[in-house]
Request: fold
Amino acid sequence: MKSRMKSRRLAMLYSATTLAALLMMMPSMLAQETSAPAAVHTRMTVSVNVPTDKRMPEINPEDVIVKQAKERLQVTEWVPARGDRAGLDLFILIDDASDTRLGSHLDDLRKFISAQPPTTAVGVGYMRDATVQIAQNFTRDHAVAANAVRLPLGTPGAYGSPYLSVIDLMQRWPESPNRSEVVMVTDGIDRARRGVRWPGLNIIPDVDSAGEVAMRTGTMIHTIYVPGVGRWHRNYWEATNGQLGIAKLSDMTGGESYYLGLQRPVSIAPYLDDLQKVLDNQYLLSFSTKPGKKAELQYVDLNTEVAGVEFAASDAVWVPSAQ
Reply:
């Protein structure tokens, strides 16, 4: 009897000791389970637009609203892209499938390049065979860059896709803290696409692929529509889908898209003048985001309550995984 009581006391003591140990461990276990990964700072380029008859107002960090779903994210930096933060890598990308009558607009393009500020490095290349043939690497000698502009060949090559070409360019883009922007001159038609091409409006698959690479690399893509060559350009649906494709690419990445229906523009100088205003009114925005288990694109909404002001920026930012 005494032996049984002793065993029962020992069992109760053991249970109490175990329970006490578990209670002591629970706070640390709960802390490990509930502790969120440290926030990371991500950066994007933002173009600020106001009506042409209005003066650009002062915009402070507290005026910038960044939301992810319904949660407002903390803005950690909002500075104009001027002074020591004015660095810009600007690549002029011309489709070799463009009609050679584009030659009448090349002087406007050369003047635009020559007028860039000293803080802007300019590169020039041609889209052909789903790649980019570099005519001039990034240089701050704008006269050299302007001289690299030539007539398009008027042929798309064996595998012509402006979207695969711009992906090729972005994958070769050198590391830089500067803003990264592209001016694509193209009709947007994906001549590389194989298989049945159904008539009607449809999304070119490589548009989304190019947009995702651009958002991941922080590249803003501006597009200028000019007619191309070949039978696809004479097809209303193909020409319209091409124009919609480059417009969507610009919209995804925060860029501007310029076009005059499916017609050849009388001049691209007004487009380039407007684009220069866009480049001159850009800000660098940084904000805190919560990393996931793996690196990913996170979509955000950008807005402001300052009257008459519109923001243009990438739909998403690349967020590294939690460490």
User: Anything to note?
Assistant: The chain is about 30% helix and 30% strand. The chain has two domains: 40-82+282-319, 87-280. Residues 40-82+282-319 form one domain.
